[in-house]
Design brief:
The structure is a single chain. 58% of the residues lie in helices and 7% in strands. The chain is mainly α and 118 residues long. The protein folds into 2 domains: 57 residues, no CATH class; 61 residues, no CATH class. A 3-stranded antiparallel sheet has the order 2-1-3, with no helix packed on it. Helix 1 runs antiparallel to helix 2. The radius of gyration is 15 Å and the shape is globular.
Length: 118
């Protein structure tokens, strides 16, 4: 795995501090985690994706971006996790709002850049 940059390591320290003092679910802590993920090397993202797939936390991808990033369909995720689509949509909306508030953009992928698997 590629070594994180100094900026990423500093962001990790900030996240750990906020997590200890404010708790994992505090908006500042979640924003700090999003910042860490933005700065993390690609190898970290690949490692986490592989782990999530091995643990059965994700359904099979619905497609891939041109760069090979897996993309998941909302319906597949809700069925896999056993939650209602409205609840999933609420969580996604909250996630997007937190990313945008942290200055990270929505994180959404343009469907035109997705190759659907058959």
């Amino acid at each position: 795995m590629t070594t994180p940059s100094a900026e990423c390591l500093a962001a990790m320290e900030r996240y750990e501090l906020l997590s200890r003092t404010l708790g994992h679910n505090h908006p500042y802590t979640r924003a700090a985690l999003q910042h860490v993920l933005e700065l993390a090397p690609q190898s970290f993202h690949e490692y986490m994706l592989n782990m999530a797939q091995e643990l059965g936390l994700l359904p099979h991808p619905s497609g891939y971006t041109k760069g090979g990033v897996p993309v998941y369909c909302l319906e597949d995720v809700t069925q896999h996790l056993g939650i209602q689509p409205d609840e999933a949509q609420h969580l996604i909306t909250q996630f997007i709002q937190e990313r945008e508030a942290a200055g990270l953009g929505s994180g959404l992928i343009d469907p035109a850049n997705v190759h659907v698997t058959h």
